[in-house]
Amino acid sequence: MVISMNKLITATGKEIECDYFNPFPTLDQVFFRVIGLTLVESVNIFANPNETVALKWGKEYVAYHTKVINITPEGDAIRITLGKE
Fold first, then answer.
1. Over the stretch 60-80, which tens digit does the pLDDT of each residue have?
2. Rounded distance, CA 56 to CA 76, Å?
3. pTM of the model
4. Rounded to an integer, what distance in angstroms lies between the CA atom of residue 46 and that of residue 28?
């Protein structure tokens, strides 16, 4: 688990503030929190496989996490869990 403020970069190059990014290979899932997006914006981005087929955050990289498991408001952030299909 890594906690700091970095930009999350989607497959199409969108850059989003992200303060938490935790790949969990055993479950083929990735957990992260984005900052500065509404719930609707988050759903539009992270439910789109063209955006989530590749995600980069600092030195972390995950691919093919295109299945939405959870998108939940959490204070000023949105917590997202994606899995591989």
1. 999 999 999 999 999 999 999
2. 22
3. 0.91
4. 16
